[in-house]
Amino acid sequence: DPDKSLDAIVAKPKEGLIDVSTAINLALTKTSANLVETRWSDATAPTAPWQKAQGDPEWSGEMILRDKREVLTDAPIDCVWKSIEQIGGKTGWYGADFLWWARGVVDRMVGGVGLRRGRRDPKHLRVGDGLDFWRVEVVEKEKELRLYAEMVLPGKAWLDFRISKEGEKVKIIQEATFSPRGLGGQLYWYLVLPFHSFVFPTMLRNIVRSSKRKALFGDA
After folding, report:
1. CA-CA distance, 87 to 134, in Å (whole number)?
2. What is the C-alpha separation between 75 and 169, in angstroms, rounded?
3. Which of 11, 34, 51, 114 lies most in the core, judged by the most C-beta atoms within 10 Å?
4. How far is residue 111 from each of residues 121, 151, 200, measured CA to CA in Å?
């Protein structure tokens, strides 16, 4: 049926289609020039049937568990942002390195991506970047960095950093959010919650220290 063909559903571009040889040459040129976009093909499985999809009604909402912490610093907001944006990869996760390493090992053992991906660029992030076992979901310069967990979990998880001016100081809000899958997901959250009380305050303190160093010595 012509009415159900791909051409009938998806309009062709005004410029017309390019041939296979041209497409291959363009792809090879981008690869040679390091212009290839970060791919989603190394991500974990797409949204599972039990997870709320974007088009679902509000009443179908999931349970949301949060761990929110905040701190004030007199470090300049641009230095705070640089420290946050450079998280992961060779920079690490600002403390508790063994726990992050162990979590990466466990993730690899159960079929996840682990920490092996590192990051595309040591200083800058963009939406869609793989970042260790996270995926960058939101990047707003000097405002917010939100990461979506791609480690194997009984639910969905995010790690969010938000910064704003608070008088003469800068407020950093760090929030871990988890949407558990059933009772197993809830149990997982409460099992790891004690580690949060060590990992996240340490992370915030070291982000502040890093920000102050950048203010004094620059972003070496």
Report:
1. 11
2. 7
3. 114
4. 25, 9, 26
Domains along the chain?
2-32 (no CATH), 59-217 (3.30.530.20)
N-to-C CA span, the chain: 62
Q: What is residue 29's predicted lDDT score, i.e. its pLDDT?
A: 54
Q: Helices 182-217 and 97-109 meet at what angle, rounded to 10?
A: 140
Q: Distances from the Cα of 40 to the Cαs of 22, 43, 129, 144, in angstroms?
A: 24, 5, 8, 22
Cα separation, 133 vs 43, whole angstroms: 9
Decide if 211 contacts 80 (C-beta within 8 A): yes
Predicted TM-score of the model (pTM): 0.72
Backbone angles phi, psi at 172, to 5 degrees: -110, 120
Q: DSSP class of residue 94?
A: S
pLDDT digits (tens, 9 = 90+) for 139-171: 999 999 999 999 999 999 999 999 999 999 999
Q: CA-CA distance, 141 to 184, in Å (whole number)?
A: 36
Query: Is the pLDDT assigned to residue 84 strictly greater than 90?
Result: yes
d(CA 189, CA 217): 39
